[in-house]
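Show me any protein, keeping tokens residue-aligned.
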Amino acid sequence: MQNTFYTAFDDETLSGRRKPDYRSAFQVDRDRVIHSHAFRKLQSKTQVFLSGEYDFYRTRLTHSMEVAQIGRSICQYLLSRGRPMRDNFHIDSDLVEAACLAHDLGHPPFGHSGERTLQELMRPYGGFEGNAQTLHLLAETIYQNESGVRGMQPTRALLDGVLKYKKLHGEFSLPPAQHFLYDPQRVYRDFVFAGAEIPAGLRGGDALNAFKSVECQIMDWADDAAYSLNDIVDGVKVGFLSIERIERWAAGEAIDAPQQRLLETLFDAIRGDRLESVFSMKIGRFLQACRLRERDNFMAAKTNRYRFELVVAPEVEREALFFKKLANDIIFESSQLQQMEHKARLVLSSLWDSCWRNYVETGPRVIHILPPNVGALIAAEATTAGKARRICDWLAGLTDGLIVRTYRRLFDPEFGSIRDLS
């Protein structure tokens, strides 16, 4: 049965329509993400706790898989509710799954610590932003090889599905701290909007960054649901969160009655060793808090992806915000995570400086510390900003383990035997 929610406008790619096969266009999108090198790398990239230190907590890969499952379930739940969804008119769960699986592809090693460091290093050269880097991968570099770079030719709907932010770096009056597209990515934003003029009302402040397709909204809420709850579970399991630490934190907060009930439920679950099962049920509550609402905007006539928007029950949104703040204040501000921040800054900055001296600054000799294809890409760039972007691409694409081994090969005199060179 044909799904009339989508038209040829939605499954067009940057190079036109794909040759059809036994899969839908959105199933092809999902499959190309899953089988990419960039997706496999997520198994060794930090979600919250440094990749490899423990076996049971989440990496970027397992987090992305959980987000994809929640996203698919939201689509199925919205269809089960009936109107306006029906069997031949519904949000495609394969498309949402593809967006969810892809949403963290651009994030660098060392999690948010690595992202903040690259933001500082790239500030003079157009900035770094994890979601913009995801778009960069999908549209340009995800199948990078010795002969050059190319993206995966995603559909318009998938590109739009990962575009959590649509305002360009250069469109901010002051250099943005976070959440922007790279200026050269205007072409992809134009493609998503099919060249339509962006209304003046969306150009001020963060209005354009808040303007998302319904699939992007589902991906964004699935991501919030996953990490607002799962960071708590992992934090308790690894010992960062205890009843005593949470109570000390709560004593300094203006905790209202609903939040106190959330804390009591959390404490009961920790005492009864039922945290994982209790928070798994919360996932179901979070996805069943979703509804659809019609909206009117400059894209609504072109695609149903902008004719409808996702609405989440306010009390559930407040619960997610509460758990995110709890995790941020106790886990992310802890000395252990701050030590990882220091490590990220040291390792990334040192590798950046080495690359810069050997591939950007002119001198009598170049030491070839990068893979040959990366060095060739840097050499082919005519501008300093272009060379910086290629170095940034390489650093952002490294896993936690590989970037540490690379750093040790360059700076640790005791590391570097033939056995260590892989």
Notes: Residues 409 and 421 are 8 Å apart (CA to CA).
